[in-house]
Specification:
Number of helices: 8
Order of helices and strands: HHEHHEHHHH
Structural class: mainly alpha
Shape: flat
Distance between the termini: 15 Å
Strand order of the largest sheet: 1-2
Strand content: under 5%
Length: about 260
Amino acid sequence: MSSNLPVAVVSVGAALVYALLALAHARMSAPQSRGLLGLAWLLHLVVLVLGLFDQPARFGFAPALSVTGWLVLTVYLIESRLYPQMRARWALAILGMWVVLLALAFPGTPYPALHSALMPLHWALGIASYGLIAAAVVHAWLMQRAEKAIRLGNANEASMPLLTLERLTFRFVAAGFALLSATLLAGWYFSEMLNNRWVWDHKTTFSVLSWLTMGVLLWGRWRLGWRGRVAVRTLYVAAGFLLLGYAGSRFVIEVLLQRG
């Protein structure tokens, strides 16, 4: 549990606002639910900023997921202005509540000293790639819902067009792939600098598997026209590998093995 009282107070506040939105969204108007989600997003941002002032700096699987969740919400808030038909506020509210409370319970391990002043760049690239790929997964889920509604004849004229969702999904996949490529290159550089060799640990192995899977997905889309279930399932596999790469390995180390 976090020992930083302001972080704990604001985290609980953010989680409560997320929970209120998840429970009451059906009875709210669109402006009300957007406003409540915006408030939760702002409180979540305050939690992340306050966490930056912890001494020594701490990081781990739960803070990584919290930043990722906040990035997904940021993308959604921007897109919901461009595409008012996009409706996933209740699901994202549940996601936000979960990651905020998880980061409060597991604040990560301290990093009293950094091996390089550029190390935060490596972390930032990794978290940004997490956020973009998570955004791609959310869009893929929305795409599946839209596809199911069309098959069942429940499609609404006001709902998000399927082709638009598909195009957005692959844009996020491509951007996430580019950032993950940069993350792996930075990881290789630091590994060579600190260990004089490329270290094949769990994090590296699963990250490379995710990178390869996304590369196959983008190639399949470009050369074979992959779409629908094949594309979505391949994306889910890639995201699963990436989740295991850092968050999964850190969860085992921090929670199961109780090591820093």
